[in-house]
Amino acid sequence: MRLYATLLITASLAFGQAPPVNLERVYYLTYAPTVQDFQEIVNVTRTIAGIREVSADTGQKAMTLHGTPDQLALADWLVAQLNRPVPLAADLSTHEYTAGKDDLVRIFYLTEMASVQDFQEAVNTIRTISTIRQAFTENAQRALVLRGTVDQIAVAGWLVEQVAQPPSSDRHEYRAGSDDVVRVFYLTQTGSLQTFQQSINTIRTAANIRQAFTVAHLRMLALRGTSDQMAQAEQLIKDRGLGF
After folding, report:
1. Which pTM value belongs to this model?
2. Could you tell me if 30 and 51 lie in one domain?
């Protein structure tokens, strides 16, 4: 093992590179009330910061990380955001961390979600429509932690606003590109959950839209596709009197 480490250092120096520096940091997650809450914060911190060497002591609520200075700097920020007795205020500027030129971490608090099921359904819609792979949650605080590009985080932020605000008859549209459109429809006239799901299948199939996700308790349908596809979906919803 020592020989292997020596060879790595020698090779790094030969190519003019400094050997990687790993530091150790211990965090006490004193505001995690349950084991599940503790594990969720550990998982979020480990995965978003990209840290492999992690140990957790549930009895002491202690999390030990080994990582680079950059990784631990991000871990410091994440723990400061999540290890709190109550969620932070909804000022997004305090919940954003710049990890690179086009690499952002942002935390959204979806505190209006009454149940974990509603929260997870909203998270799934936001994550998939914004095409963000690194998306993790802390259920107790209804915290959604995302890491992605500036454009991806912008789409996610817009979707969070749609979930958080009461639906209105205004057009809910976001243009992610020249012909890349995100639309949200509220199918408030569908009545039962079964009718809502059947209507979604009809709209998605008729407009040939692949990216279609829902937040059922809001009767919200989020779509991503071309302008023509959105126009077809809108016309179907109007013709059938399903909502807006």
Report:
1. 0.85
2. yes
